Amino acid sequence: MVSPVLLIAVPLGLAFLVPLISLVSRRAAMLVPVVACLFNLVVAITLMPGVLDQPVVEKIGGFPPPFCINLYAGPVGVLFAALIALAGLGIAVYAMAYIRTGPVDRYHLLYLLLLVGATGVVLTGDVFNLFVFFEILCISSYALVAYMGNKSGLEASVKYLIQGAVGSGLLLMGIGLLYGQFGTLNMADIANRMGSVNQVSVFVPLALIISGLGVEAAIFPLNAWLPDAHSSAPSSISAILSGIAIEVGLYAMVRMIFTVFGATSILMFMVFLGALTLLLGELCAFAQSNVKRMLAYSSIGQIGLILFALAMATSYSVAGGLFQLLSHTLSKALLFLAAGYMIYRSGSMEISSLHGMGKRMPLTSLAFTIGAFSLVGLPPFVGFPSKFLIVRAALARQQSIFTILLGFVLLGTLIEGAYFFRVVQAIYFKKGSGETGRSYAPAVALVSMFIFAALIIFVGIYPQPVADAVGSAATELLDRAEYVRSVLQ
Amino acid sequence: MIILVSLLVLLMLCAAIAALVFRDLLAAVIASCVVSLLASILFYFLHAPDVAMAEASIGAALVTAIFVIALGRTRRYEE
Amino acid sequence: MRIFLSLVVLAVIAVGIGKTLMEIPFGEDTTNVGGYYIQSGRDDTGAANIVTSVVVGYRAFDTLGEVTVLFVAAVGLGAVLAVGSASGRRRDVEPASLVLYTGCRFLFPLILLFGAYIFIHGHLTPGGGFQGGAIVASAFLLVYLGCRGRRIRHGWSKATESLGGLVFVGLGLLGLTAAGHFFLSNYLPKGTVNHLFSAGIIPIIYVAIGFKVGAELAGVIDDLVEESE
Amino acid sequence: MSFLESYAYYVGAFGLILIGLLVILVKRNLIKIIIGLSILDTGVNLFLISVGYLASGTAPIFSREGIDSGSMVDPVPQALVLTAIVIGVAVLALALGLAVRLYQNYGTLDMRKIKELKW
Amino acid sequence: MTVELLLGVALGGALLTYVLGKISPGLRNAFALLNALALVVMISLLYGQSFERALPLGFLGLELSVRMNMLSWFFAVTILGIGLLSVIYSLVYMRNKERLDYYYATLLFINASMLGTVVAGDLLSFFVFWEMMSWSTYLLISLRGGSKAIFAGIKYIVMSLIGSLTMLVAIVSLYVSFDTLSITELAGHVQSTTMGQALFVLVLFSVTFVIINALWPFHTWLPDAHAEAVSPFSAILSAVLVRKGLYGLYLLMYAMLGFSMLGKLAWGALSYSNVLAWIGAITIVFAAFRALMQNDSKRILAWSTVGQGGYMVLGVSVATNLGMAGGTFHILNHCIYIALLFFVAGAIEYRTGGIRDLDSLGGLIKRMPVAFVGGLVGICGLIGVPLTNGFVSKWLIYKSLVLEGRPFLAFAAFLGTWGTILYGYKFIHNIFLGQLPDRFRDVKGIPFTMAVPIVILTVLIFLFGVLPGIPLSVVDQVGTYLGFESLNVSIWGIPSETGTLNVVNLLAALAVAGFIVWLVLRAIGRSVSVDQDDTYAAGAAIPSGKYHYTVGFYSPLYRIVGPYVRDFVDAFFLKIAGWTGSVCGVTRKIYTGFVGNYVMYIILFLAALIFVQIAWSPW
Q1: Is the pLDDT of residue A71 over 80?
Q2: Residue D58: pLDDT over 80
Q3: pTM (2 decimals)?
Q4: What is the H or E stretch that residue A57 is in?
Q5: Residues E3, E119 contacting (CB under 8 angstroms)
Q6: Contact D1 B2 (CB under 8 A)
Q7: Is C130 on the interface with B (CB under 8 A)?
Q8: Domain count within chain D
């Protein structure tokens, strides 16, 4: 019997082990995240089939649910956990080669803790516990953004920290108000009692929580930290931030809205917000000449797309949103990883310095291209099935407002396509100045990139298993009563 | 009792405003330390001795110390 | 202009929150989970201090996360201050006066002892691992102030941090194999309430937390005072 | 008087929260902003504790036999605040570390001058 | 012989080519050639078969299928045939260039995905192959590098992305309504749809197909892309890739919607077919004049591709069996002669060191006779000179227009043909006739493997021109598959009540006319050939370069019509792109860099939420 708590406890134990290990050898610490992610991946995959039938509610401490903190390992949680472990594994492997300077043991330790925080957020069934894991996620990402110790990294990190701290303050206030009204912190319990209070009075906590989580989820007016942080962090960290951190924030927000508050009335607003975030993100990305900043803004756009899909709140759309989330994780991680080594070789983040990279680093460039195509949603890459699902969901609403919004969303995709294709051209067809010799990224980094590329193509061609998992995850997210029942039974 | 509490609250808010307006950062830090200390007393009045202890030892003492150390390595006055 | 805008915006938020607070009457019993904890906390966990029974019993998982947050911050601070640091030099400052020096040396063990008392008795009296740890750290702060030039050895503090965390997680994981098959379940005998050796794993966890928090906060101060390595 | 009785703590808590936010909004100095964060945290903590308060209650500790368990204040917010305080100090420590490094790199802590990253 | 195998060979061959190229270039070339040849053999074995089969691999719960019928077969054969010739041509043309592994692999991949679009049995796999075709084409257009090629690539992919996004919406909308994407099943369901939805879907699909078929006003990507791509690939682009748009229109208009539905979508004269026909007519005229203004050999051909697309659409939108046959046959013919012409232009480019500027070429007839013959025949086909294939198809289109009583459209088509004659003549004249510039004295003839495709295509033009019955029987089967009445095709032409197309009679008439001309010329006497420098101006010999009279060809005409035939659509699109850029520039200013502002956004967001709730309580 595998318990979902292992997904958190074992990596955490390994993380606590790292200082001891690093007393012996600093470089040995870099294996720890790899081991932890492999373990988590195995556990999550083992849990997956059972969880698709019946969610596992893990009572921590063994008390009955409203009184203990419970982990809720439903399809969503386990899917996210698997995704975190998978992306975490690939990026950890990459970082083994990529991170060479500074206190590497601390880097890998913080990285592992970031993954632990993310896993905790997606598995927990308790509001305050979610806050705590969220803080683990955020604080480790503040530190990691500044890891390189350069000016821009520090600046980005400070800005991120200030906004993140304000966000978490608001979140905590919201949680406090919730506790004041319901006297409980268990998500299912709050959901259960939600009907018993005045709906107006739960709005302020909802607004606080949306604003608080929205900072980490990077929805439109709250996302100013993202381009700075993602572009200044080491590329492996940009990859995990873009691939996991903001998605986890979005998950938390959606979980709050769907399950805890059941606030269907605000969803239309979130749909608009998603479309707006998408358009603004893509517009800003279009104007960038710095490749990592461009990727960062594109993450904003993608988050907008995911939010758009999730907030439509039909089983199709939520499935599509989750699928898009997965495909964004894989693609954006791949893009950042590939861009990382290209930037490393060319010494500059400007797109113009990537000219001729197709010849200098053919495999890395190929990886970048695959990521870019996938993100734009071209078949046969993983971005296509998710885009297909989202379009289907929007059209299945059969309302002209959704069709119009879909038009804006697709306009965003078009802009995204334009700037990604521009970069791909710069890589392949523009003549680079200066050095032209071949130089491959280290084998370990290439292996990691090709794990992602292979997944992108494989899931793109054969999306059915993912689509099934995502489908039942959507059912779980939308079925509030079932959530409450299975926790409080 | 309630008058005492109200006074403490008032004092605390004044300290907070002082932290807002002081241009001498060290004074602002001390003001925020006072805020924490008064909050700690309020915690005690609210029957939360654990929290009062934690706020006093962590929020008032350690945080202030960290602030002062950090101030020593940056500059003391706002530009 | 900016201040004006800020005030208006904050006023709107204040009004909104104020409206919501009308729904949360002050000083009245609105709890439902808390009531259960008060009723059965003593029996469930064996701790006299219900806050402790919540912190290390019912919501021990939060506490694990909390310990991790502090750990993250300590490690992160070390990473931030270590990488590409301008100089590895220690700032030369004049030594403290003899009175201060002697006073510090005298007080240091006493404060340590007090901190230890606080976290060992966490399940009985107010206080616990965090408060005790903070007091322990303040002892080290005193050393930095009074006995300049002395530093804790990083190896030891790292090992303490590590072991503290490992004990916590390890105790929790043992719960999976021991009685009840729950993470962090209290499987040790609970003893008699209000005795030092009671409440099962709670004192052990609190001691571990105390050491860990002490080491981490001291490490934080150390990192900030000196640019390490 | 009854207003004070009911809301003194809330006023204090939300006063702190709003002042903290105001500091963050209008101040440019990083240390000042971090002070603002600390005040914000204190305010939130005070609010949480006030939520759990029971007018005629006692501290939730069975320090001696015969304490009426019905009159204890809610222990849960206290547990939460313990956690929140530690999280707050963690964030503050990291922020101050970053501030120190930022000062080494930029020679200033004025956030208006620290904006190499924009657009 | 199954379609799955065909697709597998095509896709696998493309990937394998890349891998083999890493081992040995010779092996790669041989394999690419073999692969292309094998595909042609396989597709010819599939002639006349008709089936539809589900693929073993589903996609998101949808069944994917492939099918084979005359429509698919017709398009597949043009794709694979031109693909083969293009590969043959590339062997020498691309020699000594960089990135050949990439080139061959992508070329074969494009062919494979085009093949996929035409054999797809459902709209989803159609879309998937379509997108694969789009991005792989994008990857090859800019192969040459240089700012122009890169601009062409981005222009193409953005237009193409617009097209595919609209198509995706259309396809998904059909899927949402009918829960199937199989083309045959949809054909049944679509009849029951509402007018609004039918129009929605039709317009969205049409945008896609009009873009890829480069009809006005979405033609702007084509001239750049075709001119900047390497010549063998330009041939593929012009000959077959562009015509995927027509395949799409066929599917949409006839295989799925059907006549009755199309007939219902009309408000007076404003019917779908009419709009399409007028778009075709505008395209013909506009493109003819634009082509006339060009001075770049490949750009002329590119614009002619735009114009010829107009003819096909005219034929298709007339929707009689004659028009249909004309349109379909014109696809085949155009594919043959435009490929030929691109091969010729490429050969000139190859031998002259990359010169495409018509002002600086000339007199190459003696140096490159094979190219001249190929070029002349190709141009004749393009113009529609009798005895070439272009004549037959254009004749069918004109005839159908006249029979349907569309004089204005017919006039537009004639006007376009006049333009074609003018620019066709310019093409031939400026390259092959006139003086030979000194620097081209030592130009060699076309290498053998490049000549092979040219000769084959030249022969085909004549063959189909003289014996139109061979291709027309296939074209007729396409027509009958789409539900048109069968034409009565004989090997020499199409006999019918309203005037018979019979190439034998034409041949006889032409022979007589030719004989008379010959007699006249003989009676007048021979012309005298003089040396190039044998001219005098005011008694002084002028250096020969000065009166290279191909410079400024048609310049009086330019002066008259030039101001009116600017490509204002292109300018408009570029302007939109520029606006987007400035909007982006403004938008990004939100992120001011000052963290106080950022926190203000957060607080403002929260306050706005609360304020709206307090004021109006919508939530």
Answers
A1: yes
A2: no
A3: 0.93
A4: strand A56-59
A5: yes
A6: yes
A7: yes
A8: 1
